[in-house]
Amino acid sequence: MQARIIEASREMVGSSLMYNPEGMMQIGEDFANLPEVFQNLAKSLYEMTRQVQEGDTPMDPAIVDMVRTVHAGILKVAQSAEDLRPMFENLHADDIKRIRQPRRNEHYWDVANNRDYLGRG
What we know:
Layout: H1 5-17, H2 24-32, H3 34-54, H4 61-81, H5 84-91, H6 93-100, H7 111-114
Helix pairs in contact: 2-5, 3-4
């Protein structure tokens, strides 16, 4: 059976082309999930390589070493992506606080409800 990894990656690209988040909190959550995306990619490379090695194929060890290097690089990217959630929460702390702890009648401060008064002052 052929590996479906290329199909899965194309599906991921297709999903991203249709990305239409409802709000910033969804975007923050989606970015916070990127480490898992990269970890899954790294795991798939690891498992494919393991199966090739255990299958007693005549794979040149240099190719296996290169895949291991790619695997390690993807794991580093996943680790870097771990910073996205705290960065998002830190840089948008005031906005997030208003979402999580809205003031009484917060909707009165919504830009749409105040558009006639923007720029006055």
